[in-house]
């Protein structure tokens, strides 16, 4: 669309060049799983707007809640109590079952806060390391990015700290293949400095590798035995994406800290860390908060989201649509096996791994041209096409997307 390219060029002129990486669809309106641009084009959205609009775009319940709050002049600051904040915190405790919820604004901020909590708790036990995993993504603020495992993003970060260490990700089936996930942890513990916490994504957003249940159970056991906290970064996996409320339920573990963002509020600025009383006991007034934490608009959206999860069958839809999506991806993979080497994913976070990054890029572009919005290729070699449709997507829309994808692959490779 030439008009979209002109808009993109204008944005590029005025923003640092690092900001926009996706296809130049100009978003003017979105509804359910569809995106509309101002020039009459429609896309089926298999990104959920960077995995945030889990309930679908333009959710009526979220929209109504936001309009109601926006129609009242409300002070937007954490330091002032609101009825909405009190109600949401009660609801979180009742529905999600944690003693404490720290309200924040972005996923990175939630990870940042979890790291601070882990380091403060570790300090009293002489432990100072945050152990995360190769190719992890935890956000773009300094602490969150330092914990990330994508080397290209770390080159400019201070390299002399021993706080952040990465070990191999315990991907699905890795234990069956002989991988021992706790061996590197024990080594780090013995080297001195001690492990304050292990930070893990239930599935890696940047590689689509899903964590191995047995491996993660061993890591959890190791953490308990060595007084280390287990932090789950559920910014992407949480709020239904895996077919459970949280990805850690799928893994059958009980983390000490849970970082939430993205789907928590269906696309409005809001994030949260869930934890026990015990781990935040050692914090003084003002050490964990910020101006927009628990802002009324984010809270209104988050309350509508939590209500939707408790009052509807979203998770059942994820399970059914996931089976349909994965079956379709396996069929495409089998048909084009000289070009596709793997199908990855869990719930409604799935993808195809291509052998050649050029083919992957062309398939992504072709899909977009034929009306299926997907992410630009991800992964170390940029060979992964990732699909994260809204959790409310219909069977027909999954079938339509698979058809478009099949057409894109066959046009590119034949
Ligand atoms: N953790 C994970 C697993 C994520 O996927 C993201 C965002 N892609 C973040 C943290 C950071 O969230 P935000 O962009 O809201 O800061």
From TrEMBL:
The keyword Signal does not apply. Its EC number is 2.6.1.46. SUPFAM superfamilies: PLP-dependent transferases. InterPro entries: Aminotrans_3, Aminotrans_3_PPA_site, Class-III_PLP-dep_AT, PyrdxlP-dep_Trfase, PyrdxlP-dep_Trfase_major, PyrdxlP-dep_Trfase_small. It holds the Pfam family Aminotran_3. Gene3D superfamilies: Aspartate Aminotransferase, domain 1, Type I PLP-dependent aspartate aminotransferase-like (Major domain). Keywords: Amino-acid biosynthesis, Aminotransferase, Arginine biosynthesis, Pyridoxal phosphate, Transferase. Its cofactor is pyridoxal 5'-phosphate. GO terms for biological process: L-arginine biosynthetic process. Belongs to the class-III pyridoxal-phosphate-dependent aminotransferase family. This is Diaminobutyrate--pyruvate aminotransferase protein.
């Amino acid at each position: 669309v030439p008009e979209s390219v002109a808009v993109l060029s204008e944005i590029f002129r005025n923003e640092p060049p690092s900001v926009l990486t996706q296809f130049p669809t100009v978003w003017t309106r979105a509804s359910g799983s569809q995106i509309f641009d101002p020039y009459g084009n429609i896309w089926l959205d298999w990104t959920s707007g960077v995995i945030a609009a889990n309930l679908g775009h333009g959710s009526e319940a979220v929209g109504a809640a936001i309009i109601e709050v926006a129609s009242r002049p409300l002070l937007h600051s954490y330091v002032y109590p609101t009825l909405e904040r009190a109600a949401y915190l009660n609801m979180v405790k009742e529905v999600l079952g944690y003693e404490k919820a720290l309200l924040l604004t972005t996923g990175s901020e939630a990870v940042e806060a979890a790291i601070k909590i882990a380091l403060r708790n570790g300090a009293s036990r002489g432990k100072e390391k945050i152990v995360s995993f190769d190719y992890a993504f935890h956000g773009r603020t300094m602490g969150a990015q330092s914990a990330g495992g994508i080397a290209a993003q770390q080159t400019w970060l201070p390299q002399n700290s021993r706080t952040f260490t990465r070990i191999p990700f315990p991907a699905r089936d890795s234990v069956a293949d002989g991988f021992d996930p706790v061996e590197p942890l024990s080594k780090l513990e013995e080297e001195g400095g001690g492990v304050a916490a292990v930070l893990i994504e239930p599935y890696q957003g940047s590689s689509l590798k899903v964590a191995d249940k047995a491996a993660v159970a061993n890591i959890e056991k190791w953490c308990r035995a060595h007084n280390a906290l287990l932090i789950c970064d559920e910014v992407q996996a949480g709020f239904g994406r895996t077919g459970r409320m949280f990805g850690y339920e799928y893994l059958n573990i009980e983390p000490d800290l849970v970082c939430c963002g993205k789907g928590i509020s269906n696309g409005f600025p809001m994030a949260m860390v869930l934890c026990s009383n015990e781990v935040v006991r050692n914090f003084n007034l003002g050490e964990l908060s910020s101006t927009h934490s628990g802002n009324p608009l984010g809270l209104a959206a988050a309350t509508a989201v939590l209500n939707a999860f408790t009052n509807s069958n979203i998770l059942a839809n994820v399970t059914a649509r996931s089976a349909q999506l994965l079956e379709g991806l396996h069929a495409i993979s089998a048909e084009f096996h000289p070009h596709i080497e793997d199908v990855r994913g869990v719930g409604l976070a799935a993808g195809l791994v291509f052998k050649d990054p050029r083919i992957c890029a062309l398939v992504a572009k072709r899909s977009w041209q034929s009306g299926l919005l997907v992410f630009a290729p991800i992964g170390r070699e940029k060979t992964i096409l990732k699909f994260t449709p809204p959790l409310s997507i219909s069977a027909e829309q999954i079938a339509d997307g698979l058809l478009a994808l099949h057409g894109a692959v066959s046009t590119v490779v034949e």
